[in-house]
Amino acid sequence: MKTQPLRKETNCLNCGTDVPGRYCTNCGQENIVPHESFGHLVKEFAADLVHYDSKTLLTFKYLFTRPGFITKEYTAGKRVKFVHPIKLYIFSSFVFFLFYFTLTSHSNDESLDKNTKEQVETARRQNKELFVSLPDSIKRGNLSTGDWFRRLNAVDSKKQYDSLQATLPKEYRDNRIQRKMARYYFSAGRAGEDQTKEEKDHAQEELFHHNYPKMMFVLLPLFALYLKWMYDKKKWFYADHAVFSVHIHVFFFLFFLVCTALDTLFHIEVFTSWGLLVIFAYLVIALKNTYGQSWGKSLLKGFLVTLAYLITLLIVFIGFVFTMTVLIA
């Protein structure tokens, strides 16, 4: 962007290094007069945006059409034309968790029993009487831990708890953290005998949804660790496997999100079922293209790392549930 005139002085305003030309050889800053016009700011922003978008489009193009290619290029040192793996993961995971949970929660709401609204209204009317009978210390907000759990024990199920919260005046309702803890309280099975199968499944799915983003901070580096155990430690470093793990998870996030959206649109579960098979096939092809081993070895290692990943997912999820159960017990 050469719309701004150069400074007469040759010292870089950013780092102080002598600048023989237009750009500083030390930090890369352009040696132009510091007072920019508004038009220059707009043009510079547009140039940066187009440059970033071109990198993003190129990254996603190769990510979807050439499994393992970006990882191989990145580990070979060709990194400028692609989005950095960490930035790519942050963006993709944000998009996935935002839209995936929106789609699945909407689907779950539609699948609930048709009489749910009537049941909630009935429970709400009953809770007006319950609210009147509660001691003043239980009604008030800012409860002590003991008072709060006594109020939880005064209701029989999550549905009744929700309707009680709706009955309470706003200033007496639980805060966000208390509501989240209450969901764990009922989802852990303290009132499970009063729940229908659909409600139990819904509670378990809600628990999984709330913990999955946290679980990914454990699962992603473990996925890379499993790869490290399977491949030549002298040729491949852990960081190389971590980059591969990021790219695989980014593909999983975006592709599975599309499959979920199609299932929601057509009210079927075919796309996600076949989508998981496509993701496994993508993993095998990516392993073959990145690490250069035979199809047989790539298929075997793809199966082993997937099995280890699923077992780890189960263990980590049980760990999260157990931890939350202990905290609220």
Principal-axis shape: extended
Quaternary:
single chain
Count the beta strands: 0
**Average pLDDT rating:** 76
What's the order of the H and E elements? Answer: HHHHHHHHHHHH
Helices and strands, with pairings:
Blueprint: H1 38-65, H2 69-75, H3 85-111, H4 116-133, H5 136-139, H6 145-153, H7 158-167, H8 176-190, H9 197-230, H10 238-266, H11 270-291, H12 295-328
Helix pairs in contact: 2-10, 3-9, 3-10, 4-7, 8-9, 8-12, 9-10, 9-12, 10-11, 11-12
Protein traits:
mainly alpha; 329 residues; extended; 0% strand; 12 helices; 3 domains; 72% helix
What does it look like?
The chain has 329 residues and is an all-alpha fold. The protein has 12 helices and no strands. The chain has helices spanning 38-65, 69-75, 85-111, 116-133, 136-139, 145-153, 158-167, 176-190, 197-230, 238-266, 270-291, 295-328. Helix 8 (176-190) crosses helix 12 (295-328). The longest helix has 34 residues, at 197-230. It is extended, with a radius of gyration of 27 Å.
